[in-house]
Amino acid sequence: MIRKKHLFLVVILALAAFFRLYGLNWGRPFSLHIDERNVQAVTWKLAGNIRTSGSFNPMFSAYGALLFYLILPLKLIFHSPENLLLGSRVVGACLGIFTVFVIYRLGEKFHDSRVGLLAAVFTACSVVLWRESHFYTAETPLLLFIALALNAGFDILKTREKRYYLWFGIFMGLAASVKLVSILLIVPLITAHLGYRNGFGDRVKAMLHPSVWATILLSITIFLGLNPYCLLEPASYWRKSTSADLLWNALMVKGIVLPPWTVQFLDRVKGLYELTALYPWAVGFPLALALFLSVFRALNKTDEKYYYLLSWILPYLILTANWQVKFIRYTIPVIPFLNILAADWLTGGRWRSVKLRNAIILSVVLGTFIYSAAYLNIYRHPDSRIEASRFLMNEAVGKKTLTEVDEGFILTDLLPENHGLSLVNLDLFYQNNNPRSRKALLDIALKKADYLILSSNNYSRFARLPKRFPVLSRFYRELFAERLGFVKIKSFKRYPRIFGWTIKDDYAELTFRLFDHPRITIFKKMKPNQGFRAG
Prior knowledge:
The protein is mainly alpha-helical.
């Protein structure tokens, strides 16, 4: 006989599938999610290298090779980039759905089926989780392998059976083969292994036990088996010259390397930024509040299961809090486990009455679901970049010069060949941070351009930092005031929307908007421009 909890689980998994599969064809034949586009390009090139030279080196160390190997077989099935794109999105969606099931199992082990089901609901409906599963990027397989490792670790905590050490080692190795940040799984492994052993001597003896070291060795072996080029071709793997390199990205998140897409994080208050621009938009404000409160509750618990879950959550939060760069996707590896803590608090906390508890649970679930349903509005319509491209094809008739200010709009990908338009990318950031070079570039560009196209990833970055970027800040201020001979003629933007209610997420972390609903603003030259004179 099918139990009620199994019926609930089926419904939750169906809900998870709905959010992850809805609008899966969105944006095709273009890949407008920047990370997804990079993964597709590397995989396509890797397939060609295997065919011509037999090399399995993806020449991309920012992510582990497993990310590309997972969808490489699809290249044998789909012979066009567009079909590979759709096939890989299906893979991402399936991995995300399975992750929801794994979180249910971990929540059930953590306390009971109520915690498991509620944590699964939160994970199924968390916007940042299903949106990333909607595409094929590193965070989705990474999260699955982390969840599987922590699930095995919980069994280590409770039983100490050797088979669970084996599974933990396998999944930790697979997770590291997607992103190296998952080496932090060593902390919950040791936490689970030590358990409640008392005394320094007992702990030292436990750490000398071969099981924990064999687990770490197994994970290293799996990582090296999937990423042998870190040893075979160290010069290319460990370089730090481009955004495809692991070390370059390590310098980037620390703020040592400053590409334009990280300018938004300059002069942000650590901790406050996560509370205002990351987690509330990642999962919705009701669930975000529940997550924060549940962490404080867990910190006051003495049960070893709380120590275990926090041994993953806290090191990860501390690590990312000390990074200057805080992309919203960096919240993904901890959100499902915070969901378990929130579900445990909501179902098992000390409440004045059952009715109050149920009302709060219902409000958090409904709030999370409504926010996700509102976000689906993004995928009911064409991307704002595609809409803007269509508008320009009708508007800019004849030999016109279209100038993209900085990056992000990718006109060259969206406009058809032989469109008769001259495309210019005005790369303002990479001028050696030289105000004089920027002034000269702006002066020339404004004289030649017929249209200026801005993406929301540009002006919002520099306008808030006038002292650091005086030329760019003044340029955007003058442009929007229409004092440069250009007039704004059209703006394209989609917001999460439901029941006539629009959720304006303009203060969310920039990539949260940029990847699937940026604002595109088009300016048209209405009178001759004498150049840009700043200062």
